Predict the structure.
Amino acid sequence: MWTIFRKELSDHFTSTRFLITFALILMVAAVTTYTAATNLRQALEGVAKPSHVFLLLFTTSGQLFSLAQFNAFFGPLIGIILGFDAINRERNDNTLSKLISQPIFRDAVINGKFLAGVTTIALMLSSMVLLITGLGLLSVGVVPGGDEAGRLAVYLFVSIAYVSFWMGLAILFSILFRSLATSALAAVALWIFFSFFIGFAASLVAGAIAPVDNPRDPRQVVANRNAEDAASLASPVVLYSQATSTILDPFRRTRQNLTMVGPMERFSMERFRNPLPLDQSILVVVPYLTLMIGLTVVCFGLSYVIFMRQEVRST
Amino acid sequence: MKTSRWIAPLALAVLSLRLTAIAAEGDAKEDRPPRGLTAAFQYPGVTVEPEDTISVDLLVRNRGRSDETVLLTVAEQPDAWDVQLKKFSAVVSGVFVAAGQEQTLSLSAKPKAPEPGRQAQKLPAGAYRFAVNARTADGVLSQSSSVTVTVREKVRGKERVTLETAYPELRGPSDDKFVFSLEVRNDTDQDAVFNFKATAPPGWETSFKPAYEQKQIVSLQINANSNKTVELQVTPPYNAKAGEYEFRAEAGSPKGKAEKDLKVVITGTYAIKAGTPSGLLSLVTEKGQKASVSIVVQNTGSAPQSEINFQAFKPENWEVKFEPEKIKGLEPGAFKQVEMTLTPAAQALVGDYSVNAQVQGEKASRDVEFRITIKAATTWGWVGVGIIVVVIAGLAVAFKALGRR
């Protein structure tokens, strides 16, 4: 298995595809950080005692979007690019049967490919986060505290799991479909749907489940909004962005986007505006994190089972 | 024998009497008898104070046409008194009086010193009779005269110092300052510096101030027959109990002294203190989970609290209960515990909430603010871990079943 792993890793790192993707991502990351750092000054103006300034580097949207949003939308693309041709290229090039004829177990092939992909993703994302951290230290001059570093670590872990999920999905498609274009298109279609059209789908579902008859009734509005949020959680993109926004924003106290708060409760909450400790933030989003990691593992397990059951023929 | 009595207090009158005598000399010359003598005290009775010295003028007059030498002897005097007849500062036993002239002598008397070398300071009170016998050298003419000297303490009458106030009794809570306005009258004939003194129960602070001024004074100059207003300010100790307190203000000068009894009635203050036994004002709980904390209520006022109620300023649909619901009858200084139980709403968000417990007593209330930290339930965390473990176990089963082909 480790030979496959090492071979795949070297393939990834030497491929032009990887270089182009990585260069693109680095550029976007640098630009995002720069604009975020510029906007950070404006955002912090008038705040008496800013806390968790460093995390704002990741969540403040500059000209276009914040880094967290960028990862949520375009992270899947990295996964898809890394995985969409994992198996079917070997098949088409007739290298798979040659591979299997070597003294290598069949599961070593898929495990090695998946592991190599995950390692690549981990390297890319870690270097990106570290790069932004360095840029942030330079431009903002704020040193992240222990809590912030912990949040960044959790964020990195969840991001790796998220991109790995998309890679796993792409590998699954590459097992299912013989054609490179089909598997790539299938993965990209799913990505586009979950990223851009899930909002419409979710509002349709919410309209069916919890219709708003009277837009002035806060109960109905909140119920509708919660139904919409719940429906949109079907998308891993939404799942990921919800989970990470709670991890990266210590002032987010709930998973819900809209909650009913009475005037007294509001006063009571705003009396102490303390950030949540990291463990509380994690506990708040633990269902999402579970789902995220579970999806990744299930996706890989599915690819594994299907691959192991497929016949390998040299056509 | 003529017994006309003349008594003169001191030499003040001497000059004027001599002038009249000289005036009478010319016109009365022809009808004067050949010899005539008058010797008399200027006044028959005189009253002196113990501090004074006795000196009475004695008039000796030659009414005749021939000069006379008059010998004088003290005929009557109290025991243990020294009596002397003087002309200016010389002690004399007689006097030469030319025809138609008169001489004024003085009789001075003082008690004998109780022991030699010491002067008696004061005259003993009483009435004393002094008699002087005057006779011519040949003994033809003689006359005696007497004076009664009464030594008596001076009756002062209106001459005194008084201290008056319009409001001798003041009421108020123990955190007040009490100001008595005192009028000091100096009805003596002398300007004097008055010293002020106040006696107060222990722990009370007293100070004297001139009216409408902030200086603290110890003494004050008051002119004769005038008055001034001073303020006596008394400050109770912080823990003064309700009740009556007696004060005495004194004003004293060398000439006299006056005092005034004053009273302050403390009605008591209303204050309560509330907190937790440990001083910790934060609670950690989960949503929907009860949490409780003890609140200690202490009556820090000086008046008893008859009833103390509790109220909570809390988010809607939270539940806050106090056990017991109210405290009845809390004496000053005493404290009692109340258990506050609060149940956050099931929809409460993770993070910090503020709950304010209002302790409402009689004319006093106190807020105790608690920070309630809602923690996320860890059960969901374990459920999540469980799900992941199950998924990985499924993967392991797949590895086992399908692997190594």
Summary: Chain B has three domains: 8-151, 161-266, 272-378.
